Each structure stands twice: as C-alpha cells, then as structure tokens.
C-alpha cells in the first residue's frame, strides 16, 4: 500500500488481478566425490553500467531496471525474464543473506553443498555472473564462499537466460545484479535488534544524509553484526559487515561517489563435504538433522573487501556518461575435516578422514565506462548505450594436507567431533593464475512504431588466462562477439508481448585426450513471453516459454596418470516461467513464481537429475485495516530430485514444501516489533544433491526483532 493510501477493508481488483495471472497462464499450454578445496575454473563477468536513479521500487516490485540491456526500461518493456526482490520483501521475511533471497526467486535453485559454500542454478545451468550496480565481478571459484549479507542493497534483480550483452562470459542461466543503497540528501536512519533460535543475535544500523550545509555532499553508513549457534552440532557462524558511501555533487551535472564495503565471516565447526547419503548395502542413510562431520577444531574465515569510485556526468541533451573503477579482494583461511567413504549400516563404520588447511587470496581490479542517451532517426526518438570494460583477477591458493589422511573415522551417529587435530605438513598443492578480460558493447532501442520496439546490440569480449591450477595449466585464450536482439509489441497500454534471443560464451582450460585445450563453452537462449503492469506499475506479471542450450561444457571422462581428461558435452533445457510481484490489492503485497523445466542431452536423455523440474514460491503480506499490524506468509515447493551413483545406489530427495509466517506491530511511527517463523511444519530435507554428499536443512526456527526508523 502506498504511504498516502487510506486504510480500509481489503478490496481486490478482480479484473486486473485475474488478467495479470492469465497473461502468464496462457503460456502454460554426475557421479564423483568432490574435490572441495580445488577451486573451479575462474569465471569472470565483464563489467557493464546500470543507471541507478535512487529507489524506484514499489512494494514488492520495481518500476524500472537496466539489468538486462543497459537501458533504463520498465519490467514490461524488458524483452527478457527478470525478477526483482525488493528491500521491503527482504525486510518483511528477514532475508539477510543472498541464499535467502535466491531461495525465494522464480526459477532459481540454491545448492547449499556445505555450510560455507553455495552454488546457484537457473534454467539447468550454474549461475556464475554477479554484478554490483551493473558492474560484473570475476566469479573465481564458480560458487560463493561465505554467506553474503543483503543489508547493503535496495533491491536485487535476477535476469534469467543468457545475458551476453551485460555479461559477455558465463552460462546461459541468470545474472544477479545487486543494486546498492545510495546516500540521500534528507537525513534518515534505522536500526534493528533481533534474537532467534539457537541463541542467534543480529544488529543492523543504517544512517544517511547530507554532510554539508549546501547539501552537495552526502553519505551513507551501513553496519550489521550477527552471531550465535546453529541447529548443526558444533557449528557457530559469525558475520560482521560495514559499508560506507560518500557522494559529492561537483557541479549540478557531475557526481562523484566513493564507497567501500568490508564483510568478515567466521565459523567454528564448518562442514566440508557433508554427510554420506547411503550405506554399503545401497540403502539411504538417515542421520539426525543436526549431524555434522566437522571436528571441534575446524575453523573458517572469509573476508570480502570491495572499493569503488564512480563518476557520473549528465549533459544538457539528456545523455549520461559514467566511469567506475573497482578494487575487490577476498581472503579465505580455513582448517577443515573432510569425511569420505561408504559406511556399514550395522556399525556406521567405513568412513575415513581427510584433514586439510586451506588459504586463498584473490585480487580483482575492474574498470568500466559507458554512455547512454537518446537520438533522433526517421522522425522518431530512439535510445542508445555503449561502453568498454577491462578487468584483471589473480588467485593464489594453497592446500596444506594434514597427517592421517585415510585414517578410519568413528560412526557419525552420536559423534561428538573429537578428532585429534593433525599437523598440516603431509603435502601441499595449489594454484597461482591470472585472468584478464576486456570488451566493448553497444545496444540500441529502436522505436519502430508506437507499439513496436526493437532492442539489438552486440558485445565483444577477449579473455586470457595463464598460470597453474593444482598442477594443471590454467592457460586459455578466446574472443567472441555475442549478439542480443529483442522485440516488444504493445497489445494494450499495459500488456506487451515480446521475444528475444541472446548468447554467451565462456573460455575453458580443460584439455582433451590429445592434450588440446577445449574450445570455449557456448550458450544461447530463445524466449517468447507476455508481460503486463497494473496500478501505475505497482504490480508486474509475466509469463515466458524458453529454450536454452549450452554446448561444449567440459566433463571429465577419465585420467591419464594424475591428469584429468575431459570432453565437451552439450545440454538443452526448455520450460515455462510465470512470475507476479507487487501490490495485488490495497495493503496486500505479494510475490509468486512457478517454473517447469526439462533438461536433456543431444540423445534425448534426461540429465542433471539433481535439479528440480518444477518449483513454486510465494510470499505475501497484508496491512490489516484500522490496525497497526502487518501479517504475512511464504511458501516454497519443489518436486523430487535424485542422483544415480556409479556403484548402483540411487540417492533421492522426495518433493517437499516449506512454510513461513511473519507479523509486525507498529508501536508508533518510529518503532515496531516483528516476529518470523521459518519451516513452520518442521520439514526434514536435504539442502542439495548437487554433490554425492549433503546435509539437512534447518528445522523449525523463529526470531523476534525490534525495529526503529527515523
């Protein structure tokens, strides 16, 4: 409900709501143990610029986004599937980490393989493109270390499919764009204190305003601290976050911004590898929910530092130019115990120890420059954006393997974590390599007719790498131009049909049986859909059918001595996505999505069976009329998944649903108290089958928070 709207009984807008749903409904017609401390190939997302014009969110949606084509378009005008998770939705359901956000996003699965490492997938492929205000970051490990905090962001955009125009390298899955909170000229402040299950505590603070009398300099400071225990035995995570941004108007048309973010996450008892999922007789294991393979001496520390300088120049003719320089560093220091093997059902014995100490240092420098504006052609006004980018990323990591690798472990049933800490001097191995990217892009939105718009563009990327990764050359060099084309047609003032075709590629360093480096992976997405917006953009709805293909992805097929041999494989996914977000009725904010997916190889064989084929999510809050009370609920469902193991075992996770509740009482205009409950039905389920090992998700839990704003 907008701030000025009067409070009265819930009044549905039945025609608009039904039409919003129907616009989407019309379309409704690996098997090896992980090597957990060897990082995946460096995956790097080139840099592009997103125009950020403050908070344009409206409840559970946004009025516009630049995350798809670099042009500031409404969601309806964007010819690609895009979901928005707003600040309000994150606050209502206490989505304090990126895992929380993406678990509630249409078409995205969150693969929590361990307590401190996570993969993300969309449309059947890994998500390896993250951006901050449109500037891509090198995705070095192919997954995320730690639990990235969301206190910094006004909203998060998720663009599904290939996004080769804004991220020239990667997979045809999705691009996640984090839109930062920015300084405000008017003073504002907020703070929150929360306590929850397992003695969890969290404190948030956010203050923003002008720093001089002329109001030409403003700043924003954000801080968060979270610690406590866990439902997992011996696991105690802690997270500290501080972020500051200064913004100076050098002239009425020139703005300089400087920002820095530091996030440090530490954990005791962190899982490495997770639980065995079946016994030697091939029947499934069933441990208590809190079972943890970590020894009591295990530790993990992740430190993220991000700094950026941004210069924006506006011109009298409406054009806008921007340059951004970013410097990112990441450090990991950890001591871990990997438990491997297949236990006996009767005794639980048959597991073995693999202790290791791991250090990693990653440094990234990124430069991006772009310009956006309008031009006249053929008696009509059109839009144009173009730019160039460069990045360099270095990684140095080392594994110090501990004494006692292969020592028998006790049964995990009732295990207390007592295992003598070894010396980590059995052997060492690691990586030292450098990745470079440079590229350029241009895109235009042509106003062909009043209802018909064409968006077309191309991005060129050159990628080079050299160095060593765990004894194997990391050399790769490739360049490619990736086209983008999208067409929109307005069926009505608020209903638009669209189609788009986008591509992407990713260089590879793996070698085949002849020793030759594999050609780059190539991905492409074709999409057809319909979108609508209602109530002045407060509600957005979309439905899409898509077909996505990824060719020549490296898959290990054997070994030549200690050297792995790979081949390139192809896979194709297709499916349907329905998405609705925003104000459904006065006082009722909602976000919902449903996905149907199939993934096959060129022979028509089903692949990646660890990914769900059908997923559903929904979140809604309702502002009770005449009362200072907001209530809400959320739900997530996925169908069953499984893995076929080499020894004949089949690991399964049956379909499941989880539910949550929230309530917030406004004591006055500044103070409120809120309560949240997660996994209300106390459902027991595995977090992922991405690997052949996994652990159990959190059981029912709750938190209470006291919130203040000025």
From TrEMBL:
It is a multi-pass membrane protein. Gene3D superfamilies: TonB-dependent receptor, beta-barrel domain (2.40.170.20), TonB-dependent receptor, plug domain (2.170.130.10). GO terms for molecular function: siderophore uptake transmembrane transporter activity; signaling receptor activity. GO terms for biological process: siderophore transport. Keywords: Cell outer membrane, Ion transport, Iron, Iron transport, Membrane, Receptor, Signal, TonB box, Transmembrane, Transmembrane beta strand, Transport. One of its GO terms (cellular component) is cell outer membrane. It holds the Pfam family TonB_dep_Rec_b-barrel. Transmembrane segments: none annotated. Residues 75-174 form the TonB-dependent receptor plug domain. Coiled coil: none annotated. Residues 274-680 form the TonB-dependent receptor-like beta-barrel domain. Residues 1-28 form the signal peptide. It is found in: Cell outer membrane. SUPFAM superfamilies: Porins. Belongs to the TonB-dependent receptor family. This is TonB-dependent siderophore receptor. The lineage of its organism: Bacteria, Pseudomonadati, Pseudomonadota, Betaproteobacteria, Burkholderiales.
């Amino acid at each position: 409900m907008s701030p000025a709207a009067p409070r009265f009984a819930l009044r549905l807008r039945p025609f608009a709501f039904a039409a919003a749903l129907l616009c989407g409904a019309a379309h409704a017609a690996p098997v090896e143990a992980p090597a957990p401390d060897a990082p995946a190939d460096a995956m790097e997302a080139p840099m592009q610029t997103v125009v950020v014009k403050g908070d344009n969110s409206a409840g559970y949606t946004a009025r516009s986004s630049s995350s798809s084509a670099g042009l500031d378009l409404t969601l309806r005008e964007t010819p690609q599937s895009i979901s928005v998770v707003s600040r309000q939705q994150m606050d209502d359901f206490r989505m304090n980490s990126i895992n929380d956000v993406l678990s509630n996003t249409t078409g995205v699965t969150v693969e929590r393989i361990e307590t401190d490492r996570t993969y993300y997938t969309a449309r059947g492929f890994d998500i390896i493109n993250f951006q901050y205000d449109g500037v891509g970051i090198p995705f070095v490990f192919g997954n995320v270390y730690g639990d990235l905090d969301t206190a910094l962001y006004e909203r998060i955009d998720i663009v599904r499919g290939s996004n080769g125009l804004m991220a020239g390298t990667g997979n045809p899955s999705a691009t996640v764009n984090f839109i930062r909170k920015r300084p405000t000229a008017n003073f504002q402040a907020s703070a929150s204190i929360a306590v929850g299950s397992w003695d969890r505590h969290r404190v948030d603070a956010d203050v923003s305003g002008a720093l001089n009398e002329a109001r030409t300099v403003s700043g924003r400071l954000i801080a968060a601290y979270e610690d406590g225990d866990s439902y997992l035995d011996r696991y105690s995570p802690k997270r500290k976050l501080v972020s500051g941004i200064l913004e100076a108007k050098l002239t009425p048309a020139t703005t300089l911004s400087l920002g820095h973010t530091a996030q440090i996450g530490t954990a005791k008892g962190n899982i490495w590898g997770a639980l065995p999922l079946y016994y030697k007789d091939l029947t499934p294991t069933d441990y208590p929910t809190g079972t943890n393979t970590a020894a009591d001496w295990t530790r993990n520390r992740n430190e993220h530092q991000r700094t950026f300088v941004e210069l924006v120049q506006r011109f009298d003719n409406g054009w806008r130019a921007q340059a951004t320089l970013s410097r990112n560093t990441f450090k990991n220091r950890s001591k871990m115990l990997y438990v491997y093997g297949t236990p006996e059902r009767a005794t639980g014995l048959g597991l073995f120890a693999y202790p290791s100490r791991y250090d990693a240092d990653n440094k990234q420098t990124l430069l991006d420059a772009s310009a956006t504006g309008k031009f006249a052609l053929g008696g009509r006004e059109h839009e144009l954006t173009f730019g160039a980018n460069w990045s360099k990323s270095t990684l140095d990591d080392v594994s110090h393997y501990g004494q006692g690798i292969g020592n028998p472990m006790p049964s995990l049933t009732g295990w207390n974590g007592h295992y003598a800490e070894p010396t980590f001097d059995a052997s060492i191995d690691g990586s030292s390599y450098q990745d470079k990217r440079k590229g350029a892009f241009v895109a235009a939105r042509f106003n062909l007719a009043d209802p018909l718009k064409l968006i077309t563009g191309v991005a060129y990327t050159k990628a080079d790498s050299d160095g060593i990764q765990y004894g194997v050359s990391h050399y790769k060099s490739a360049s490619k131009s990736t086209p983008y084309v999208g067409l929109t047609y307005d069926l009505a003032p608020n209903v638009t049909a669209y189609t788009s075709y986008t591509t992407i590629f990713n260089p590879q360093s793996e070698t085949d049986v002849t020793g030759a480096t594999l050609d780059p992976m190539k991905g492409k997405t074709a999409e057809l859909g319909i979108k609508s917006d209602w109530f002045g953009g407060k509600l957005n709805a979309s439905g899409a059918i898509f077909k996505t293909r990824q060719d020549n992805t490296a898959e290990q097929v054997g070994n030549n001595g200690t050297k792995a041999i790979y081949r390139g494989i192809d896979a194709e996914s297709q499916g349907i996505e329905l998405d609705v977000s925003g104000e459904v009725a006065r006082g009722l904010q909602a976000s919902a999505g449903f996905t149907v997916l199939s993934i096959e190889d060129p022979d028509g064989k089903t692949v990646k069976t660890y990914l769900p084929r059908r997923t559903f999510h929904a979140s809604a809050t309702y502002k009770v009329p005449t009362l200072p009370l907001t209530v809400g609920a959320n739900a997530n469902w996925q169908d069953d998944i499984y893995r076929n193991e080499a020894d004949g075992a089949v690991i399964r996770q049956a379909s499941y649903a989880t539910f949550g509740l929230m309530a917030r009482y406004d004591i006055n205009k500044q103070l409120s108290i809120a309560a949240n409950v997660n996994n209300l039905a106390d459902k027991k389920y595995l977090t992922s089958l991405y690997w052949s090992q996994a652990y159990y998700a959190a059981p029912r839990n709750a938190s209470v928070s006291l919130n203040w704003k000025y």
